Amino acid sequence: MAEKYKDVTIKGQEYRIGKFSAREGAFIIPKVAGILAPIFAPLLKGLDLKQVDKPEEINLKSIDIASILGPLANLKEDDFMYLQDKCLKVCQAKKPVGLIPVLNDNGSFSVAELEDDGMAVLTLMVHTLIHNLAGFFSGSPLAGLLSGIPVINSQS
What is the pLDDT of residues 1-47, one digit of tens each? Predict the structure, then answer.
């Protein structure tokens, strides 16, 4: 059974990342796949995944990381903001009073340190996407790649 939540630490702050609801996930996953496909296509170009049993068998040194920047640069702001909102709405910060939502109902941050820290917000988004997408790749060599993606400034 898939984990219901994942705890991560980003820049010393602990967060709990939840799952998208089934209805949201059913909508978000194809949307994310459409966004990520152009990013992963250059990464996977030339890799014969049918011949791979384990993620460690993939030669990551042959991947042209620079080729993923083009699709990222073409991401529309509305799509990015939609994805960011959906990701952050399933996240909570661990505070002395208990778990509090990262976003208030009006979309503002309830965690002051996130207000001006774009890198922490991006890191939280990446963890959320990995946590929510990992189940779709179980049994595939891509599962290990997805779970092995290093996320800047975090400890999980």
Answer: 567 899 999 999 999 999 998 898 888 877 777 766 666 665 556 55
Which of these, 10, 31, 6, lies nearest to 18 by C-alpha position?
6
Distances (CA, A) of 102 to 34, 39, 94, 96: 26, 28, 10, 15
Angstrom CA distances, 145 to 25, 76, 140, 148, stand at 21, 26, 9, 5
43 C-beta neighbours (distance < 10 Å), count: 17
Cα–Cα distance, 141 to 144 (Å, whole number):
6
The residue among 94, 116, 92 whose CA lies nearest residue 102 is 92
Smallest CA-to-CA distance from 55 within 152, 113, 137, 129 is with 137
Of 100, 125, 89, nearest to 10 by C-alpha is: 125
Phi, psi of 148 (to 5 degrees): -95, 5
